[in-house]
Amino acid sequence: MIIMNKTLYLSIAVVSVVLGLMVAFQFRSAGRVDSGVPFDRVQLLTTELRQIEKENDTLATEASDLEAKLSKAEKGSPEAFQAVQDELVKVRQAAGLTSMQGPGVEVTIAPIKKGDSAGDNLFTVRDEDLLRVVNELRAAGAEALSINGQRIISTSEIRLAGAFIDVNLTRLSPPYVVSAIGPAGQLESSLLIQGGLVDTMQEWGIAVTVVKKDKIIVPAYSRSINLEYAKPHKEAR
User: Fold this and answer.
1) Would you say residue 3 lies in a domain?
2) Residue 138 domain-assigned (yes or no)
3) Which of 30, 60, 132, 157 is most buried, judged by most C-beta within 10 A?
4) Does a structural domain hold residue 118?
């Protein structure tokens, strides 16, 4: 009985020693972990972590702003496209490549008949007569012009070709009808002013009538435009 008690006490003592060693080892391990990172270093890492978190927040805000700007740009692209389209329409109109309509005047020009034969005409209508009318109308504010349906643009030629007049390489014969879109009253008065162009042409034996209209239609230039020598000029910066 005494031997059994001694054995029991010895076993308890051994277990206690082992448990004590294990607890001591745990404390030492924890102490090593804690002492492995100095307190100053912990503070530094904490500060850096907070700085990184702050920078991440800033980047997230910038990314959100960029996404908003991108979304706005995508929404704005149709508007930009429409602006380009509108500008292209204006350029085509100014170049004479678009049919136009509006108020203006219609000027009919023809030689005055003196008899039945062609030789009885004192004067025939010449290319310079049409040029004078066109220039007078332009100076008075005409925005679109045509002669017998031929649109007048910057490269249009008006020249005499025998008994005919060529406009845009198209042979025209009298009567010549000049259609002009612009301020009708101003266009009319510029031609009918006393001692002006119409009076002079009538003295030369050319009949000229000027009619104001609420709606004049001027067709688009129908031929191709080929510029062989003239090129866009890039201004030096």
Assistant:
1) no
2) yes
3) 132
4) yes
